[in-house]
Amino acid sequence: MKTEFTLPDDTTISYTRTFAAPAERVWQACTDPQVVRTWMLGPSEDTTFEVCDMDIREGGSFRWVWLDPDERLEIYGDVLEVDAPRRLVTTEQMGGTDWPPTHNVVELTEQDGRTVLTGTIRYPSKEARDGAYASGMADGMDVSFARLDEAA
């Protein structure tokens, strides 16, 4: 199954993916750092997932750092809302940039042992949204979600 992406308005990217697993397992795969390390492998095959710190509770935060021969990628944010295993709301920011944070919502809906993950990323501007989408983030997320489907 492929991840479906849409651009519903000038500042938003939405995505949907169905996983062949119950919501509780998909939730754990998305919020347990030991499991996240197995599927969110970063931008290239030479990438090392150096840091995967996640405190998934309201008021918590997360920080991910990937290293490869050409670059260092850091993403971090705050956890705003948690309703396990149904909804997670965070901010997200890319390290080393002055870009304002995004507002991210992930929702899980289970039916007949399968889970639909729906995500919404709201950017501060159309330019920021378009830049993120043009970076290849959709392809990277789709590859990672294929690994998540195996992990969940």
TrEMBL record:
SUPFAM superfamilies: Bet v1-like. Residues 20-151 form the Activator of Hsp90 ATPase homologue 1/2-like C-terminal domain. InterPro entries: ASHA1/2-like_C, START-like_dom_sf. It holds the Pfam family AHSA1. Belongs to the AHA1 family. This is SRPBCC domain-containing protein.
